[in-house]
Design goal:
alpha+beta; about 45% helix
C-alpha cells in the first residue's frame, strides 16, 4: 500500500482491510477454478477462452489440450470453443469485450 498513490487509493476507496478482502476473494476464485470438478452434462456448451493464468497452464496449447478439451465429457453435443483475444483477467475489459461479444452472436 505504501507504494500506491494516495489519491488513487482514495478514488478506489481502498484501505488495508478492503485490499485484504479483495485479495482473499480473488484467490478464492482462482482456487475454486483450479480444483473445480464438474458433474453431469448439458445439452450444448460454448467455451470462450483466452490465454490462461500462468499458474494454470504455460500457454494456450497446454490450456486447450490439458484443461479445456475435457469439457467434451460434460456436453451432449461437441462443445464449441471460441478463442478470444487477451488474457483471462482482461477478457471483458473495454479493449477486448467487443471481440468476445462478436463471438457470442
Amino acid at each position: 500500500m505504501s507504494c500506491a498513490p494516495p489519491d488513487r487509493l482514495e478514488i478506489l476507496s481502498i484501505d488495508k482491510a478492503r485490499l485484504k478482502k479483495i485479495t482473499e476473494v480473488t484467490l478464492s476464485f482462482g482456487t475454486a477454478g483450479r480444483y473445480y470438478e464438474p458433474k453431469g452434462a448439458v445439452s450444448a456448451m460454448d467455451v470462450f477462452w483466452v490465454t490462461p493464468l500462468l499458474w494454470v497452464a504455460k500457454d494456450r496449447k497446454e490450456w486447450m489440450d490439458t484443461h479445456l478439451s475435457k469439457w467434451v465429457d460434460f456436453s451432449n453435443e461437441a462443445p464449441r470453443f471460441h478463442e478470444c483475444a487477451g488474457v483471462h483477467s482482461k477478457m471483458l475489459n473495454a479493449e477486448f469485450v467487443d471481440g468476445v461479444a462478436r463471438k457470442m452472436r
